[in-house]
Amino acid sequence: MELFSVNRLAGLLEKDRQTVKRALRGVKPDGEERGQDRWKMTTAVRALEDHQGGRTSGGVNYRLLALADQIEETWSTIDDHFAQLRAVKEFVPRGDLLQKLKTGLLLQKLSDLLRQANAMDDKIGTILQIATDEMMRELHARYFDIVGFEVAEDAKGRFIRIKASEIADAATRKKWGHIDPDR
Q1: What are the E-state strand segments in the chain?
Q2: Which among 10, 31, 55 is the end of a domain?
Q3: Taking the model in full, what pTM does it have?
Q4: Which domain holds residue 174?
Q5: Which of 63, 144, 154, 156 sees the fewest Cβ atoms within 10 Å?
Q6: pLDDT per residue over 34-88, tens digit each?
Q7: Of the candidates 22, 4, 147, 131, which has an alpha carbon nearest to the alpha carbon of residue 86?
């Protein structure tokens, strides 16, 4: 589960740092890093909504809260998958584990959940979309770094996965999806 500082939240949510700081005043931090309080994105968004709308807990959108719980659970599972994948140092066994875990599908699920949550809130949804797009870009970059390949565009404009430096033969690269001429 990713935790954010006030400065990082302000940047991702495109809000003034002081506004975020005031909204989080009195909100219990979800964690601490290097002696500094940190919050989950959902905690910060709830605090901002309450702060900006002057709402009390009576204005709760339970469907949005349920989505927030699913987002946090999915994010936590992705973090667990990343830790398992990092622990496997050899490329081919890591590929086996990658297929077993289906982390790529979880990343898509997280993206879909975030899109649903953003669409439900017309006040802050557009701003959240910018923040969630940035978070998903960072997650995908971590994913590609862990699994040992990158995505590039080939001469025909197709996206392909490349840089499988630990395996040499084309048949093995194709098996793991590093060369797929039919894409």
Answers
A1: 31-33, 36-38, 150-153, 159-162
A2: 55
A3: 0.54
A4: 149-183
A5: 156
A6: 899 999 988 898 888 877 765 444 555 667 777 888 888 998 999 999 999 999 9
A7: 147
